[in-house]
């Protein structure tokens, strides 16, 4: 058990942005909202999975929508607790702990907003060990935990509570409401008991994110290589260092989708890397060959600073390094690949192991 | 207080189909579902507004969607009670009475399905005195009754409960869910106390629908003019007798929209009538001039049988008579016209009084 103070969120947001593989929302907006909430209400307690009682009621708090929208349509900062309270009313029980659904930039911060406002502790872990674009892409789904009942709240004060026959239907109905509500909403869902967390969560990812963010910051401070520091901590393999030469993006179906093309520089001169994304980076082709796929993490970092580059932050001329990082092994089981493998997203390829270091 | 038996629903559905101005769903499908429910569970009690206790909890039960879809995607018959129970859970109270939201064909029948299955009585009245395409177009809205909390259920077992900042938002969010759920769902909403019914409902419209349906049937039996019988009972004015020569329809945004063109026959030879509809008939132009608009009722009847012709049933060659029928006077107040006047639907005209008899 430890307390998180506003200034720690700088490192945590940076690290979560890297683990978020380009998605999970812009860490900057989320960080400011969480820091403001902590300054207003006091520090947030983070607890390890082992510290959560077996009968605890753990609720995942997240933002849903297109990150491109959340950049301009700043959340009100009240949606998280509105969604949480609506879910609690539907269940007739109060949450005892909150947890991030994913360690994306905005979505690693969102539980801290609700935690500061309610005084509830945040569990050190998340339901993906990365970020994914759709609500049913969570490890708890592999052990029978349902996304619904799921509460969705917007900035205007509208809420809805879903009860669905499958996690895919929870995604479909929440997504269509999200689009109607303005493409940026908050969700409370995926209710777990404390004794389900070990199987349902990737443990200690908030700690990992904070340490990762610190390692990048410290490397930068001593003019060492921040990207190498990140790769070393994550066991990541460098896929390409280069610059962005083309980005094609569209906001469709409530997602930020698109492709980006990178031209190699320095040791990679002459090589190309193509990234495909749907909120998150999902596929990387090097010189025309698939070399990394979801559910492995494809992380795009600013080559100079080591800062994460979100899919909506990709732009012509940006100097980046792309890392491939192994996902939680549960994602490589048949059930995990069904949920979040490349074929689910419509890519005509199986999962491809990352190239060797 | 009286009991409704399955065979009475024939007249009721026919009359409600006429009052439904082409919308509210196909009366045939609704009638079969309600008759089956009554045969399985016993007769349904219908009570007058005056018989409802002041503290009663009255819930409107309806179908939402595009009538064109409900024709082919037959409801499961369980959605109504699923929606009702979800609403009751959200409110922590049980309904004492059900009521139709509108007297459209399917939607006058839908409360009887739920009433037969639950044993609850149905209030003789409805919230429109006709049918309208959108959820916020209800007279209770003029006295401050909100559409939400609103429960929506589909045939697959998915439910959602909305709590919204306005009736328009209830419509928007329920509609987007409806589209995602397959364009045909059931709703429980617009909760009223018994002492709100006099101002919130158009009274005795179920009785009117049944008498109207009987009058048409009896006129037909003696080879009298069934359309004249309907017009006489409703104070309606004949706008044109003719045949359908063109229909253009599209299902968009969860609605059945389109236009139909009629060429006059007999005494109307040489005249034309153009109908514009969005689930319901909303505007009639005779020889290029607007002669009837929402919120007045524009009723299309089969000239020979007096049976109602739904907007989705319009087809080339059909011989029909179009009646204009005055709406409930509350619809002609500024608030009523804001909700359901021609300008709300995008027509560049004010409400036009019906032509004299």
From TrEMBL, chains A, B:
Pfam families cross-referenced by the UniProt entry: S-Me-THD_C, S-Me-THD_N
Lineage: Bacteria, Bacillati, Actinomycetota, Actinomycetes, Streptosporangiales
SUPFAM superfamilies: CV3147-like
Domain S-Me-THD N-terminal positions: 8-163
Domain S-Me-THD-like C-terminal: 166-354
InterPro entries named in the record: S-Me-THD-like_C, S-Me-THD_C_sf, S-Me-THD_N, S-Me-THD_N_sf
Protein known as: DUF917 domain-containing protein
């Amino acid at each position: 058990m430890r307390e998180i103070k506003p200034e720690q969120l700088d490192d945590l947001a940076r690290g979560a942005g890297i683990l978020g593989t380009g998605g999970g929302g812009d860490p900057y907006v989320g960080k400011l909202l969480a820091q403001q909430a902590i300054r207003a209400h006091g520090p947030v307690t983070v607890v390890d999975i082992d510290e959560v009682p077996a009968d605890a009621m753990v609720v995942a708090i997240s933002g849903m929508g297109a990150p491109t929208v959340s950049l301009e349509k700043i959340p009100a900062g009240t949606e998280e607790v509105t969604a949480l309270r609506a879910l609690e009313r539907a269940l007739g029980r109060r949450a005892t702990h909150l947890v991030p659904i994913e360690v994306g930039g905005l979505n690693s911060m969102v539980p801290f907003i609700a935690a500061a406002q309610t005084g509830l502790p945040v569990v050190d872990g998340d339901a993906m060990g990365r970020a994914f674009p759709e609500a049913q892409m969570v490890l708890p789904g592999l052990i029978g935990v349902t996304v619904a009942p799921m509460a969705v709240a917007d900035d205007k004060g509208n809420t809805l509570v879903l009860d669905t026959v499958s996690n895919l239907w929870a995604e479909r109905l929440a997504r269509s409401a999200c689009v109607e509500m303005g493409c940026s909403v908050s969700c409370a869902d995926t209710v777990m008991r404390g004794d389900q967390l070990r199987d349902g969560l990737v443990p200690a990812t908030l700690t990992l994110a904070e340490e990762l963010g610190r390692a990048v910051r410290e490397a930068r401070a001593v003019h060492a290589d921040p990207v190498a520091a990140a790769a070393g901590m994550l066991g990541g393999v460098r896929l390409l260092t280069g610059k962005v030469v083309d980005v094609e993006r569209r906001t469709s179906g409530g997602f930020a989708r698109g492709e980006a093309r990178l031209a190699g520089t320095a040791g990679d001169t002459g090589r190309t890397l193509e990234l495909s994304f749907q909120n998150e980076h999902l596929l990387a082709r090097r010189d025309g060959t698939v070399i990394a796929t979801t559910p492995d993490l494809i992380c795009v970092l600013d080559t100079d600073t080591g800062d994460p580059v979100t899919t909506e932050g990709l732009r012509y001329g940006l100097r980046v390094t792309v890392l491939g990082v192994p996902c939680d092994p549960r994602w490589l089981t048949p059930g995990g690949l069904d949920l979040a493998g490349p074929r689910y997203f419509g890519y005509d390829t199986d999962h491809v192991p990352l190239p060797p270091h």
